[in-house]
Request: fold
Amino acid sequence: MRTPALLLSLGLALAAPAAAQAECRLALLLGLDVSASVDAEEYQLQLDGLAAALIHPSVVEAALSGTGPVALSIYEWSGRFQQDLLVDWTLIEGEADLVGIAERVLRSTRSHEDFPTAIGYALGFAATHLETAPPCLFRTVDISGDGQNNDGFPPAAAYRHFPFEGVTVNGLAIGGASRGIEEYFLSEVIRGPGAFVEYARNHSDFEDAMRRKLERELRVMILGDLAD
Reply:
């Protein structure tokens, strides 16, 4: 359920001036777990949490800093063939772009709810979808989930057979449904220099974890620009 405070924040953010920038510095693809281990309440916590994180002042500042805009896309994943785009590639050139994406996330309806956890397939989809992104200096995939791969090929196979050269894969591991989920993401899911796992104790902690993760991803790219 959308809270009045979140909707008010969306409305206020729309009034802020846009900050246009030039060349894309980062293509960021977010994958949300909608497998059978995620119930309806937890799914809604993910949507509300992501929307709130996208318009948090610290995330907005990070997204609009640096030498160019970020291209953002979001998809849901569960079983082998259940990957659905919520938001196709969108350049973030001003705060209104983030607000528009947050509103689309809040209007989303769940694509699937009865399928297992196919992280390898989710990564394969991510690699393929990244090839449709605008040209950017860096490319990052972020997979969030509350369970280990239990359907289809594992993450390691995805990395062997799909184009992940130059791609960083980070993770947002959600505790509660699976023991050792953070350790699993650290050892099996993340990939590339500087890759990391952000941990949420449960789905109620998803918003804060997503905000921390987005800040870190976006600010790393800013530091990289400054070092050039």
